[in-house]
Amino acid sequence: MNITSISLSYLLLLISVVEFIVFMYYKFLVISTDPKNKKRNKIIGSMKDPDHWRQRNNIIAFISLFWSLVSIISFIYLKFYYTLGLTSIIYLFIYVVLIVLSVTFFIKKNKLIRGK
């Protein structure tokens, strides 16, 4: 299956926007659970290890920001510098799988709660 490079570029722009929204969500969680913030107790509640949770959310936020920036750069390249008309849609699927794998491996790596 092939799609035009323009369509692929706009799909990458959509992925970039979604990843940036995910970045903002996790960053908002990290900021809201700062020890000086009043909302901290509402969000954290009776969590066993809130510091590890905050650190994990912060890293996930930056992973999302990384993929957002890569998607924007890919959008710009495909939109303005890639001259071929058709591109395989498999590249998009591989790209999405790489994003999911990067987050999944990070979550599995940091799943256990560290002892104090």
- What's the arrangement of strands in the largest beta sheet? 1-2
Radius of gyration from CA coordinates: 18 Å
Helix content: over 70%
One letter per element, helices H and strands E, the order comes to: EHHHEH
Which oligomerization state do the chains in this entry correspond to?
single chain
What's the β-strand tally?
Answer: 2
Count of helix runs = 4
Q: What is the mean pLDDT?
A: 84
What would you call the structural class? mainly alpha
**Major β-sheet profile:** 2 strands, antiparallel
Report the portion of residues in β strands: 5-15%
Query: What is the molecular shape?
Result: elongated
Quote the distance from N terminus to C terminus. 52 Å
Would you summarize the structure shown here?
With 116 residues, the protein is mainly α.
What does this structure look like?
The protein is mainly alpha-helical. It is built from 4 helices and 2 strands. It has helices at 5-32, 40-44, 50-81, 90-109; strands at residues 2-4, 86-88. The longest helix has 32 residues, at 50-81. The N and C termini lie far apart (52 Å).
